[in-house]
């Protein structure tokens, strides 16, 4: 039996929401835990553990209950490392649960639920569209210190990606940006087509954070470390900080948040796309 | 930081972070055992440039970055982020008043 409750939420500026109160059913209890974003969720579990379910997929257990995604599905990941990392995230919450620090969990939820119903092709075309407005390709004309810095730091990455993928991407200082030839897009489309849906979710996340497809690919190909990629993405900000000084509550906060999200995205893509086997070689003497 | 990239330092860094997160019993946690296993497994390799080893090294650097930056981000958040508004009860309490209660609830509440 469902009861209909009309709640006036003054915090949302007078929006009247219809909310059904479900009976205390296990399935929905964990789904509702994400929905009250404004209320503080206290930590309601003691232990976090992982277990292997059917099909070789790993699940995360909070105390005795299985973790669920916001839409109610069972939370499963294909490999153990990702499950352990998610369990560590949940374990790191003290007293209250802060979802904004749990980047891997958020990414897994997005990949599992796919709330906006995006297909692989949509994601790939969105990523390629971003190439036209890639950060690395946009250069300034002045001040000369910044021009110099951009040339020294961004050009090597451009050359690396051009030689690695055998494409041409120019850089330009006009407002329209560089002309990306079709061949380049085709090469990248083929390369990105080999990624799975999970990896593409992670890649999209990283591109949104770094504002650059080239830096994301450089980081995922292990050419750049996370710190370096974030530094290159924020090059102009770093230049201004060196000139005008650092503001901890804005610059450092942004930088750490960017690093955390980018690292989570990169780890997510790595773990979703790799499978490791150990070959023991006999010592021959 | 070039000095950070040796595997020993990365491993130590990750374990330190785990200790910060989980307190004194971090040695029994899943992540601790997994990390130590992985570092042990990938330590010995025959080739001079082993791709899998480089990949594992990069992954460990990434994970260390994730742990440190979430910790720093949380610290800055607690330090600087706005705490939100007070609830109506607290606001009334600031000046020593209490909100009126209606025993039957207001008209639209149940």
TrEMBL record, chain A:
Family: Belongs to the ATP12 family.
Function description: Plays a role in the assembly of the F1 component of the mitochondrial ATP synthase (ATPase).
Organism ancestry: Eukaryota, Metazoa, Chordata, Craniata, Vertebrata
Main localization (coarse): mitochondrion
InterPro entries, per database record: ATP12_ATP_synth-F1-assembly, ATP12_ATP_synth-F1-assembly_N, ATP12_ortho_dom_sf
Pfam families with a match to the protein in the record: ATP12 (PF07542)
PANTHER family in UniProt: ATP SYNTHASE MITOCHONDRIAL F1 COMPLEX ASSEMBLY FACTOR 2 (PTHR21013:SF10), ATP SYNTHASE MITOCHONDRIAL F1 COMPLEX ASSEMBLY FACTOR 2/ATP12 PROTEIN, MITOCHONDRIAL PRECURSOR (PTHR21013)
The organism's place on the tree of life at top rank: Eukaryota
Membrane protein topology class: Peripheral membrane protein
The protein's name: ATP synthase mitochondrial F1 complex assembly factor 2
GO cellular component: mitochondrial inner membrane
Automatic annotation (TrEMBL), chain B:
Domain of life, source organism: Eukaryota
Example of a GO cellular component annotation carried by this entry: mitochondrion
Pfam families cross-referenced by the UniProt entry: Complex1_LYR_2 (PF13233)
InterPro entries per record: FMC1_homologue (IPR037667)
Role played: Plays a role in the assembly/stability of the mitochondrial membrane ATP synthase (F(1)F(0) ATP synthase or Complex V).
UniProt record similarity statement: Belongs to the FMC1 family.
UniProt-listed PANTHER family: PROTEIN FMC1 HOMOLOG
Protein name: Protein FMC1 homolog
